[in-house]
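Human: We require from you a protein record containing the residue sequence and its fold in C-alpha cell form, and nothing else.

Assistant:
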Amino acid sequence: MQVYLSRTDVAERIGVQVATLSRYRLPEPDAQIGILKRPTSGWLPETIDRWNAERPGSGNWTRGESRA
C-alpha cells in the first residue's frame, strides 16, 4: 500500500505549523481523495523532501551559486 502525507504530516515533516503551509507554494499533490467540495491532497514523502530541500528559505537562496 502506498502511503501519502496529509497537510498535517507535511507540516510536521518540515517543522512548521499547519497554518504556515498556506503561505507556501506546495508541489502538485501526488494523490487526491474525493472530488466534491474539498478534496484531500496527499504527497509522497520523497516529493515533500525534494521540494523542501529546493525551496527558497530553506537555505537555498542562491540556487547553486556560491556565497561570497
Q: What stands out?
A: The chain has a mean pLDDT of 87. The chain has one domain: 7-54. Residues 7-54 form one domain. The beta strands are 31-33, 40-42.
